[in-house]
């Protein structure tokens, strides 16, 4: 086992040397963002370099294995990070089970990817017991999920601690609903210390993943005679009609899912922004990004420049991943991600 650990460490060290040029830029980002919202100074790159040098590689291998077997995993892991960080900060509070926890809120019932996090945690507890937090695993897994799906590799700082509080009452005031207006989304992002630009960029996460029919079914209507009515004129009519076929009237719209991006649903690319220009944003909260003069220009820019989107994504993702992180006595390192120690 010691030989295996040394081999893993050697591989990771080589990878780190190849990517070292990226670190200075992201350290600079970390030093200038959200001093009032995060504890960036408690985090560092290669935080587990001595205590668990193969930690990030173990998480990546777990994500790669799960995603290879189930192509829906990357989208689920990315969404899991959003729902964790926007409520109580990036502290793995979304993973805690029990009555009255964040996870029990109806808005979080459709979340997935929990087993991937638990599997990674089990491996880490074997090689590095009581060392790697569930909060870091969630952030790393989302980062690795994007890369697996074809997106950019992003170096993020680690050292997050796991929170001990998870309340259902904290969910709704802190998450973005798919029916939100631009002003409502801006308000939530501003509270979190994120910018209007971050809102556009991070919405690009919808280039992968899927959604339940009841998240967008109020944008059109089909009566009992099969007559179609487009309720939201910002949605392309032909696309809306196609959605009605995937979400037939009378079906259990809370169980049927539709791909967020109808063109390249499993590829993390800039197709999402191209879809918005074609009025094929699945959610109302997607469509407003192209319809609002405050964000339209950025949507067009990213639709025409995938490299530019990837560069911007890398920066905004770091900002997302350090929201409200816990440190010291404010958190712990759980031995099981679903319960506090």
From TrEMBL:
The chain crosses the membrane at residues 20-36. Gene3D superfamilies: 1.10.520.10, Peroxidase, domain 2 (1.10.420.10). Keywords: Calcium, Disulfide bond, Glycoprotein, Heme, Hydrogen peroxide, Iron, Membrane, Metal-binding, Oxidoreductase, Peroxidase, Secreted, Transmembrane, Transmembrane helix. CDD domains: secretory_peroxidase (cd00693). InterPro entries: Haem_peroxidase, Haem_peroxidase_sf, Peroxidase_pln, Peroxidases_heam-ligand_BS, Secretory_peroxidase. It is an enzyme of class 1 (oxidoreductase). Residues 42-341 form the Plant heme peroxidase family profile domain. It catalyses: 2 a phenolic donor + H2O2 = 2 a phenolic radical donor + 2 H2O. It holds the Pfam family peroxidase. The keyword Nucleus does not apply. Binds 2 calcium ions per subunit. It comes from the Eukaryota. Removal of H(2)O(2), oxidation of toxic reductants, biosynthesis and degradation of lignin, suberization, auxin catabolism, response to environmental stresses such as wounding, pathogen attack and oxidative stress. This is Peroxidase. The gene is LOC107005559.
């Amino acid at each position: 086992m010691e030989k295996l650990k040394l081999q893993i460490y050697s591989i990771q060290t080589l990878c780190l040397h190849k990517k070292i040029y990226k670190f200075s830029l992201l350290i600079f980002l970390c030093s200038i963002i959200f001093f009032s919202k995060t504890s960036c100074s408690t985090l560092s790159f290669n935080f587990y370099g001595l205590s668990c040098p193969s930690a990030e590689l173990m998480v990546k291998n777990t994500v790669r294995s799960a995603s290879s077997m189930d192509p829906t995993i990357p989208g689920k892991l990315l969404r899991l990070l959003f729902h964790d960080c926007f409520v109580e900060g990036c502290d793995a509070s979304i993973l805690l089970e029990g009555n009255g926890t964040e996870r029990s809120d109806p808005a979080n019932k459709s979340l997935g990817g929990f087993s991937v996090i638990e599997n990674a945690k089990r491996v880490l507890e074997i090689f590095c017991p009581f060392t790697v937090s569930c909060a870091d695993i969630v952030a790393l897994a989302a980062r690795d999920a994007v890369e697996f799906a074809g997106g950019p590799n992003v170096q993020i700082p680690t050292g997050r601690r796991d929170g001990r509080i998870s309340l259902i009452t904290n969910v709704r005031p802190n998450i973005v609903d798919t029916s939100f207006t631009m002003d409502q989304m801006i308000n939530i992002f501003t509270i979190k210390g994120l910018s209007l630009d971050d809102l556009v960029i991070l919405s690009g996460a919808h280039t992968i993943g899927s959604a339940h029919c009841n998240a967008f079914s109020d944008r059109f209507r089909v009566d009992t005679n099969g007559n179609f009515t487009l309720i939201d004129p910002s949605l392309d009519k032909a696309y809306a009609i196609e959605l009605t076929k995937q979400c037939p009237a009378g079906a259990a719209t809370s169980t049927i899912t539709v791909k967020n991006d109808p063109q390249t649903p499993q590829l993390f690319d800039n197709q999402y922004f191209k879809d918005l220009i074609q009025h094929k944003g699945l959610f109302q909260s997607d469509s407003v990004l192209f319809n609002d003069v405050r964000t339209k220009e950025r949507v067009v820019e990213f639709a025409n420049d995938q490299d530019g989107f990837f560069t911007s994504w890398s920066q905004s993702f770091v900002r997302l991943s350090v929201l409200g992180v816990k440190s010291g006595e404010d958190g712990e390192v759980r031995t099981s991600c679903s319960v506090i120690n």
